[in-house]
Amino acid sequence: MKNHSRIKYFVSIMLLASLVASSILVKNLVRVSSSGSIDKVHGILYVDDFIKYPGNPILEGGDFWCPKGIRDPSLLLDPSGYLVKEDGKYVMYFNGRNTTGGSVTKAGRATSDDGINWTKYEGNPVYSDPTNYVMVGSVIKRGENDYVMYYTNDFENSFAMATSTDGINWTRYDTEKPNDAILTINNFVSCSAMCLPYVTKIDNMWYMVFEGATPGYSYNIFM
User: Fold this and answer.
1) Cβ atoms < 10 Å from Cβ of 202
2) CA end-to-end distance (rounded Å), the chain
3) Residue 41 lies in a domain
4) Which residues neighbour 3 within 8 Å (Cβ) at sequence distance 6 or greater?
5) Per-residue pLDDT tens digits for 80-128
6) How much is the pLDDT for 9?
7) Which range of residues forms the domain containing residue 201?
8) What is the rounded CA–CA span in Å between residue 73 and residue 93?
9) How many angstroms separate the CA atoms of 20 and 25, rounded?
10) What CATH number is given to the structural domain containing 171?
11) Stretches in the chain below the pLDDT threshold 50
12) Looking at the domain assignment, is residue 21 inside a domain?
């Protein structure tokens, strides 16, 4: 597949992932009907209908560190965007909030045998940022004992990275910049807020798509 086709495919899938993650999956699990299909050449997802899972929600907040709920599920992936299982289980990271509006937001972790029944990690939250704001976009397993998390910090003013050897204990990547940012709203003339960085590697190049807001909070997709 040519690079531009793979990029279009990545953007198409990440847009769907963003929609599902932010508004459906944690609150309402859905499955694609058997008549849906993906055109990998043109990067188009065709879905005839979605069927709501009758056992929703599949994961709930309300724990001591996230009494106002959880959102933005992100499944553990490899650099190419394929699902990674650990000990035969799917791994999900999610964002938990302590108040309405999320003045303190941290990251949690859960595992599942089937993608429906999830067990939260007993030691949650697994990561908190010194800015008190973490909105996980992507968590990628780059190799054995090599994990990286891309997330929003500093109240949607920048993106940062954290690394881990086990997917549980995380350390913020030191960029020697304010809040250890890898990207800030100052890099984009028309962006006044940014969140949920989705990242993948195509050939030897890393690509990121994310949600950005222009002044007045008109939301757009940036890359």
Assistant:
1) 17
2) 20
3) no
4) 202, 203, 205
5) 888 999 999 999 999 998 886 657 889 999 999 999 999 999 999 999 9
6) 44
7) 58-222
8) 6
9) 6
10) 2.115.10.20
11) 1-2, 4-29, 31-33, 40-42
12) no
